[in-house]
Design a protein that fits this description.
cell membrane; disordered N terminus; four-stranded antiparallel sheet; disordered C terminus; three-stranded antiparallel sheet; 3 domains; 11 strands; 25 helices; MMPL_dom; alpha+beta; transmembrane helix; 60% helix; SSD domain-containing protein
Length: 808
């Protein structure tokens, strides 16, 4: 089979080219190239300067679903719930005996004082054995007595240490602030999102904590730190190594593109335009009031990767036309005509894929969606407009141009392209669709086990052997009251929180929660009342029950710690200490509390979820679970609509969309196999896979449809698409897949997971566009019956007007 050399006439002299041809946009850009390039240079310089003002500083409150009922309940009572949101837990462990050592206790005191003075600390709710708010209650010869855990006049003498031992045993803090093995204590450090008018600086806070850790560990203790702020600090620290992986990925993309083209100048130009897009994004973000966080730091590379894909298509089209003898300016205009509409549709699909993330009610995801959409919109200017204009000046090397036509001028189909062309035949198409059906069913069955939220203890964003996760494991092993706490708020009328009927229901809720496998212990004012009842009866455990006497309950209230009930006595808190924050654990607690609330809420008492870090994470999981399905439906609806507007053929839309759906199903199955849950860090990857994947299909389908409408057979049309855009689909799919696969070695596990998922989707979307798409086309697409041009010369003359009309 001999394919037509080109759908445009060969024009070697630009003076012979009709500058008035093409769409209005093409004439505006290419007839005023100097103005266009100058304008782009000025914008790039200005935005590069603005990029220096971009800050990397996350926000705890922006990472939680602000409008979820759990969070609204927490915010409504936040003034009475200090320390139940963004909180650090710092354990100081000794390897020399127990905590009843004067030198150890003095070290804890000094560290406590330094932490107290750190910027952003909510000092009124800070807790440790050295804080006066941590008290003991007991029955002495004089009656009910109490006081701060550290006795007045503590001097480290044997007598004062013995007094401290007695106070700690009566405080109820063993398992919470004091380890049961008496070898470590905890300092609880609640944080304020804003310190006056200034936002909490997580980078500075993390550096201060590490400096304190290094200084005090030199004094013979071990410091273990957990909490959101430390996770974020470690993620930001890991970002410094992430830049190395970005550089490696960029080098791989450049090397693969250079290997394909053998042209240094055009390769560098494609890379430069993609980098310009990343610079524009980084410059626009501070202008629009955005900041980067650990989850959006990958955006510049993703914009670069998408830009490389589109840039390679433009360069390949210009290279082929120059190889046929067309002048570089004319070749640039031809390629703009052919691919601008397909590229624009693909980028709009990418932008819409990110924009639908706005349905997720989490501010940081909103920022990510807007930032990514801006980045993709920038590519319309840098890679669809700037790159062809620059290539019209630079061109490509003659040797590279001739090499680009080698496959087209071969006397017979080359083996690889001939193999792919077989999927346009019924036998191969049927086999491909049968395999796809099996994969869909199998992948769908596995994806039913996909979990929402964390599947591992500690911080899944970090490696299991990271310092943070080792610290988290120490906390879980050493303390009965873990750092994962789910707090139920019990709302009552004013001064009614200590009523026996109220406390009886609180006790019933605690009993139900204690039966759950993921619950280690609970604590509430009801529990305190039972302990006090036994204490006031000579410690006899037969009296370990709720006092029936309201006078006794009122007496206990005057000495109860404020974290169990508020000053107005209209709010109680039930602390549920969990063994971890895995998705199943949180789901079980949420269902138990919601069922209890539905059965027992009344006008006088309401059980409200939820505060505490586990309560906030449970709310996040609920929002993510709802948004996951909603997001996929919206992104596919948007991509389908854009594809239909472009192709005006429902058959072509099915050919383009079904391979993407298969990749989405298989991606979810891969997440199950790898033990990756759907959460804030991974949810955007799913939308990204659809957005980027449709690029491949659009470039292949656009050329195939043009050839079919010219009367070519499906085999001829698809083979022409392979030679023109298909080879670049293979190049970019493999290149980007290999590039992001190197992220698997990142010290940040969430980046490693993202790299694996992106590599999988790049490769599978490429295979879908090259194998499944022509198989579907065999059953859905047919040549358009129309009169053929009388000869090749007439066809070449008619093609530019037809393509120009399509672009317009």
């Amino acid at each position: 089979m001999k394919l037509p050399a080109s759908d445009h006439p060969v024009i070697a002299n630009p003076d012979d080219f009709d500058r008035r041809s093409g769409s209005p946009l093409e004439r505006l850009l290419f007839n005023h190239r100097v103005v266009v390039v100058t304008l782009f240079l000025l914008i790039t310089a200005a935005l590069a300067w603005q990029a220096f003002g971009l800050r990397l500083n996350p926000s705890f409150e922006r990472m939680i679903p602000a409008k979820h009922p759990f969070i609204l309940n927490y915010q409504a009572h936040k003034a009475d719930l200090g320390g139940l949101g963004n909180t650090l837990r710092i354990a100081i462990a000794t390897d020399k005996g127990t905590i009843y050592d004067a030198a150890y206790l003095d070290t804890v005191r000094k560290l406590n004082d330094e932490l107290f003075l750190l910027p952003g600390v909510d000092r009124s709710f800070m807790k440790s054995i050295w804080m006066p708010a941590v008290r003991w209650i007991g029955v002495t010869e004089e009656g009910l007595d109490g006081g701060p855990v550290i006795p007045d006049g503590f001097d480290g003498s044997p007598a004062s240490l013995e007094q401290l031992r007695a106070n700690i045993e009566r405080s109820g803090e063993i398992g919470s602030l004091v380890a049961p093995d008496l070898r470590s204590t905890v300092i609880v450090v609640p944080l304020l999102e804003t310190d006056g008018a200034k936002r909490l600086d997580y980078v500075r806070l993390s550096d201060s904590l590490e400096q304190l850790r290094a200084r005090y560990e030199a004094q013979g203790v071990k410091i273990h730190i957990t909490g959101f702020a430390k996770v974020v600090g470690d993620l930001i620290e890991g970002m410094r190594q992430v830049l190395l992986f970005f550089a490696v990925a960029l080098a791989i993309c450049t090397a693969m593109l250079l290997w394909y083209t053998r042209c240094v100048r055009s390769t560098l130009l494609v890379v430069a335009c993609s980098l310009v897009a990343a610079v524009w994004l980084l410059g626009l973000l501070p202008l629009l009031g955005f900041e980067l966080d650990p989850y959006s730091i990958l955006l510049p590379f993703l914009v670069f990767a998408i830009g490389m894909s589109h840039g390679a298509q433009k360069m390949n089209g210009i290279m082929q036309d120059i190889g046929r003898g067309t002048h570089k300016l004319v070749a640039a205009r031809y390629t703009f005509r052919r691919l601008f509409l397909a590229g624009l549709t693909a980028l709009l699909a990418d932008a819409v894929g990110f924009a639908v993330l706005m349905v997720i009610d989490i501010p940081v995801i909103h920022d990510l969606a807007l930032s990514a959409s801006i980045g993709v919109a920038v590519l319309i200017f840098t890679n669809l407009i700037l790159l062809p204009v620059l290539l019209s000046y630079v061109g490509v090397s003659p040797a590279a141009a001739l090499r680009s036509l080698r496959d087209e001028e071969a006397p017979q189909k080359l083996a690889f392209w001939a193999f792919l062309d077989r999927f346009t035949q019924r036998k191969w198409a049927s086999g491909a669709l049968a395999v796809a059906a099996v994969l869909t069913v199998a992948g769908g069955a596995v994806s039913l086990h996909l979990k929402i939220g964390d599947l591992d203890p500690g911080a899944p964003e970090l490696r299991p052997d990271s310092r943070y996760n080792r610290d988290s494991a120490f906390m879980a092993a050493s303390y009965a009251a873990s750092s994962d706490n789910f707090v139920v708020m019990v709302k009552t009328p004013q001064y009614m929180c200590a009523q026996y009927a109220t406390l009886a229901q609180v006790e019933a809720l605690e009993w139900k929660l204690q039966q759950l496998a993921g619950v280690e212990s609970t604590n509430s004012y009801a529990t305190l009342s039972k302990r006090a009842s036994a204490a006031m009866n000579e410690g006899n455990m037969k009296w370990f029950d709720l006092p029936r006497s309201q006078d006794m309950l009122n007496a206990i209230t005057t000495r109860a710690p404020r974290e169990l009930l508020n000053q107005n006595c209209d709010l109680l808190t039930v602390y549920v200490y969990l063994k971890d924050h895995k998705a199943d654990t949180l789901d079980g607690v949420v269902r138990a509390v919601e069922a209890f609330a539905a059965a027992n809420n009344s006008k006088d008492i309401q059980f409200l979820s939820a505060a505490g870090n586990a309560g906030i994470e449970a709310a996040t999981n609920i929002v993510v679970k709802k948004a996951n399905t909603q997001m996929l439906l919206l992104v596919y609806a948007a991509v389908t609509l854009l594809a239909f507007i472009t192709f005006r053929s429902w058959r072509a839309v099915i050919c383009a969309i079904l391979p993407l759906m298969l990749t989405s199903v298989l991606c979810e199955a891969l997440m199950v196999w790898l033990g990756i849950g759907v959460k804030v860090a991974t949810l955007p990857v799913i939308a990204l896979g659809v957005g980027i994947g449709v690029d491949y299909a659009l470039y292949v389908v656009s050329v195939t449809l043009v050839e079919l409408r010219r009367g070519a057979s499906l085999s001829e049309a698809y083979y022409k698409a392979l030679l023109f855009t298909g080879k670049v689909v293979v190049l970019t799919g493999v290149t980007l897949g290999v590039a992001v696969a190197t992220w698997a070695f990142s010290p940040l596990k969430f980046q490693a997971d993202m790299g694996i998922l992106l590599a999988f989707m790049f490769i599978w979307n490429m295979l879908g566009a090259l194998i499944l798409l022509p198989a579907l086309a065999h059953f859905l697409l047919r040549p358009t019956a129309q009169a053929q041009p009388r000869d090749e010369k007439d066809e070449e003359a008619a093609a530019p007007q037809r393509m120009s009309s399509a672009v317009s």
